[in-house]
Write a structure and sequence with these properties.
Length: 155
């Protein structure tokens, strides 16, 4: 598992959103920015608003950044962790985004919020999703299925 998961392959920056992202002890803001002092608080708040992060933590979008995370975010829900991981990766401005089980642990409302965030925030970059189902990936250009060690085109 990676906390800092943006790597550079040639000139391509690759971001990765894990199904179970990791966090360190510290403020939510520090976990999102990985203590990068070049990241502006205003930029993080804008992303938090799009993802309804304050609502997820039952506070304002600005107050949420001061929340402390301990024990690798053990008390965070799966949806909260996924939203935080998406913001973390967006702040890195990847050229390619890999996402493992995007909708795992999200209710229907938050699936919509997360989908809208990805469409608005990541724009035209290539995003590769892994999933056990194809039910939630209708807005994709292509769908492949790995079956009996063979990659098959579904869409």
């Amino acid at each position: 598992n990676f906390i800092a998961s943006c790597s550079v392959l040639g000139n391509v920056k690759v971001g990765f959103v894990e199904q179970f992202p990791d966090f360190f002890d510290g403020s939510l803001f520090d976990n999102l920015t990985l203590k990068d002092t070049l990241v502006k608080k205003e930029d993080v708040i804008k992303l938090a608003v799009v993802l309804s992060l304050g609502e997820s933590f039952q506070c304002s979008d600005e107050e949420v950044l001061g929340i402390n995370i301990i024990d690798n975010g053990k008390k965070l829900s799966g949806g909260q962790k996924k939203k935080l991981a998406l913001i973390r990766e967006k702040l890195k401005s990847p050229d390619l985004l890999l996402v493992d089980e995007l909708y795992a642990g999200l209710d229907q409302k938050n699936r919509g919020v997360v989908s809208k965030f990805i469409e608005q925030s990541f724009g035209e970059i290539t995003i590769i999703y892994t999933s056990h189902t194809d039910d939630d990936y209708h807005n994709t250009d292509k769908i492949f299925m790995l079956m009996n060690s063979e990659l098959k085109t579904i869409k």
